[in-house]
Amino acid sequence: MSSPLSASVTFSALLEPGGPSFMPTQVVIVPLDVVAALGGKATRRVVGTLNGYAVRLGLMPLSSGERYLMVNKDTCKAAGLHLGQQLTVTLAPDPTPDAVDLPAELAEGLADWPEAAAGFEQLTGGMKRAIAYHIDTAKRPETRLNRTVQVLRQLAVGGHPFRAPKD
C-alpha cells in the first residue's frame, strides 16, 4: 500500500458503530473541513492511517455533507482498534483510486483467460474490489480456488460475476 501523500490531513475521531442498515460495522466520521481539504465530493477514495495503521478506503457520503470511513472487523483487529476509541486519523486522496489489489489466484486466472480479463476490465472499481474481497476472504485454499473459477467463468461469458448462469 502506498504511504499517504504529503498533502495529507490529520484529525482526531471516534471509532463508532454505524454503516448502512444492511451492513452494520465500525465507522469513522470525516468532518466537513477535512472533506473540503481532501478535495470535497470529488474525492471518493483515500489512503492514510488509523492510529498509525495503513489503510486504503472509500469515503462514504452522509446527508450532512460529512463523509465516513467503514472500518471492518479485520482491520480493527489488525490495528488493535475497538469501538469507542479515540483515533488519530491521517488521510490523503488516493493517487490510484481505481487500483485493486488482486488475490494471487484471481491475478493468475485473469492472466491465463483473456475473455475473463476482458470482462473484468469492463467492471467498475467497486465491483472489482468486491470480487477481490469475495475471493480473498475465503479461509480454505479450495474455497478460494472455487470462487475464483466461478467468477472467471461468469466473466468470460459476459455474465454477472456473482450470479449463476441462466440455463
Automatic annotation (TrEMBL):
The record's listing under Gene3D superfamilies reads:
AF2212/PG0164-like
Checking Pfam families in the record gives: DUF1905, OmdA
According to UniProt, the name of this protein is DUF1905 domain-containing protein
Please name the source species.
Hymenobacter aquaticus
Kindly list the organism's lineage: Bacteria, Pseudomonadati, Bacteroidota, Cytophagia, Cytophagales
